[in-house]
Every structure is written in structure tokens, then in C-alpha cells.
Amino acid sequence: RTHELFLSFEYVKQFEQSDSLLPNTWIVIRIDGRGFTKLCAKYKFEKPNDRRALDLMNAAAKAVMTELPDITIAYGVSDEYSKLITTIASTFTSYYIHFWPTYFPETTLTPPLPSFDGRAVCYPSVQNLRDYMSWRQVDCHINNLYNTTFWSLIQLGGYDAKEAEKFLAGTLSADKNEILFSKFKINYNNEPEIYKKGSIIFREYELVEPGSHNVAETIDHVAEPVKQSKTQDENDKKRRNKARVIIEHLDIIKDDFWDRRPWLLS
Ligand code: ATP
Ligand code: ATP
Ligand code: MG
Ligand code: MG
Ligand code: MG
Ligand code: MG
Ligand code: MG
Predict the structure, then answer these.
(1) Domain 26-225+238-259 CATH (choose: 2.40.128.270, 1.10.1410.40, 3.40.50.720, 3.30.70.3000)
(2) Which ligand is the nearest neighbour of the Cα of 36?
């Protein structure tokens, strides 16, 4: 009988079950373009920073945030790890392709089409989560200073890639700032914030004045969520759905960004 046949195969469902993440933690989903080194060459992205490509990434990320209201700045809280990752990575990919013609009107996408991988990591404390975000922003700064200097040597200085790499080997940040300024009259501080700091996408409510005293109380130093009543949860969800999703290029290493937006990490 069909039902017996069904039961004889059903055991395979058990293989699906070991995918829940550590409860009461901040789940960070990091997505990353697959084979984008090739994709950049194929579509002739400007080096080191193609503004259209960054704006396209931001548009896709903003659409994901708008569509999945459980995601805060930290990419969500859920118990289902593979579902969360696949939902985010596939929704992001869909919007990336959807918005492509807006940002690259002269270039038609052809196979292999862009896609993204996703990984989930659990961070048990707010401090871990902030350190994670700080780590990504420091990485952005280091890479951008290097890339800006590297591509200036090539585009403005007539170096080839090998010579530029050799010239920069062993240089510190201060040296790169100095090279940019003395050789090319580029003041790195005046480079666009989006390149230096990356993009932060979050729901904006009313800002809290720095120094106002409920701030410190609102920010919890452990990740454990406060038990809330159902209606409180529903209210929060409604507010989240209504809030504007915005894109900024701010410092997220210092306390100020978080102090002014206590709803992000509490
Ligand atoms: P993998 O599939 O392992 O992630 P990958 O080729 O995507 O391989 P990454 O380490 O993710 O490797 O590097 C992404 C590459 O795409 C880098 O070289 C980066 O400079 C380039 N890139 C991404 N976005 C832009 C952009 N907006 N402008 C210029 N270059 C970009
Ligand atoms: P979740 O996001 O949790 O997966 P869901 O609404 O997608 O929620 P599923 O359990 O995945 O729920 O069920 C998918 C639904 O879509 C089912 O009701 C199924 O009958 C319907 N469905 C999927 N593909 C087709 C199709 N080609 N024709 C008609 N109905 C379909
Ligand atoms: Mg990458
Ligand atoms: Mg990678
Ligand atoms: Mg990549
Ligand atoms: Mg389903
Ligand atoms: Mg489904």
C-alpha cells in the first residue's frame, strides 16, 4: 500500500534534524559572492571600487531586510539554521539579479549567473557580536587602503600589478597614506565613506540622544532575551514591518552608533 511505502521511506526525514543553532545567541549570516573575482572581470567592474556594484549589493541587502522582518542589523534570530541561510542567500541572489539592469543598464547578465554562499555563526554575547562587526569594518578599511594605493599606482602611476605589489610589500598604513598623498595628491581621508567604512543597513526608529540615561539600561551586556508577552511580540513585529530600512556608512567600532540605536542590540 502507498502508506506503507511512504513509511518505509520516511526515515530519511531524520537526516534533516540536526540543523538548529545555539539558542539565545546572535546569529550572523555572512553571504559572499561566489567567484566574484571572475564576475568582476567579466563585467568590467571599475577597480578598486565599482560604485554601481556596491549600490547593487546594497539594494539587494535592503530588499532582503524589508522582506524578512526578523533580521535586525545582525541578521536575525531564529532556530532554523539551514532554512535561515538558504532563505537569505536565495532571496539576496534573486534581488541581485532583479536589480542588475538598474545598476548596469548597458550590460546583460549571461550564465554562469551571480550567486552567493552563506554561512551562519552564533555569537553568545553582545560584545562578541560587536567585535564581529568591528572586525569586518577594520577588514574593510585595511583592504580599501591597500586597494586604493595599489590601483592608484597602476592607474595613475603606470606600474604593472607585479611592481605595485612589490612596492607595497611591508608598508604600514601610514606609508600608504603618504604614498597616496606624495605621489598622487590623494588625501585618503577624503575618499568616499562607502569605500572606507562599508555599508550598514538597519531599521531606523527615533535616535536616542547620547548621554540620556536610559541608554545604558537598555543595552544588555548578555544576549539573553527578555521574556515578552505575545502582544508585546506582535507590537514589536508591527513596528519592525513599518520602520524604514536605511543604508549608512558610519563607524560601528565606537560606542556612539550603538548607544544612539539601543533597539539594535537589545
Ligand atoms: P569565492 O567564491 O571563494 O568567494 P571570489 O572570487 O568571490 O571567490 P572573494 O574573496 O569573495 O573571492 O573576493 C571578491 C572579489 O570581488 C575581490 O577581488 C573584490 O575586490 C571584488 N569586488 C567585489 N565587489 C567589487 C566592487 N564593487 N568593485 C570592484 N571589485 C569588487
Ligand atoms: P515555508 O516558507 O515555510 O516553506 P510554504 O508556504 O512554502 O512555507 P511549504 O510547506 O513549503 O509551505 O508548502 C509549499 C506549498 O506550495 C504547498 O501548499 C504546495 O502544495 C504548494 N505548491 C508548491 N509548488 C506547487 C505547484 N507547482 N503547484 C501547486 N501548488 C504548489
Ligand atoms: Mg568576498
Ligand atoms: Mg569568498
Ligand atoms: Mg566571493
Ligand atoms: Mg517547505
Ligand atoms: Mg516552501
Answers:
(1) 3.30.70.3000
(2) 1
With a 6 Å cutoff on the Cβ, whether 33 touches ligand 1 is yes
C-alpha 191/C-alpha 172 separation (Å) is 18
- Quick: pLDDT tens for 120-178: 888 888 998 899 889 899 989 999 999 999 999 999 999 999 999 999 999 999 999 99
Q: Looking at beta carbons, which pairs linking 208-215 to residues 24 or more positions away fall under 8 Å? A: 208/259, 208/260, 208/261, 208/262, 209/260, 210/256, 210/259, 210/260, 214/262, 215/259, 215/262
246 C-alpha to center of ligand 1: Å?
24
**Does 36 contact ligand 1 (Cβ within 6 A)?**
yes
DSSP annotation of 70 reads T
pTM of the predicted model as reported, rounded to 2 decimal places: 0.76
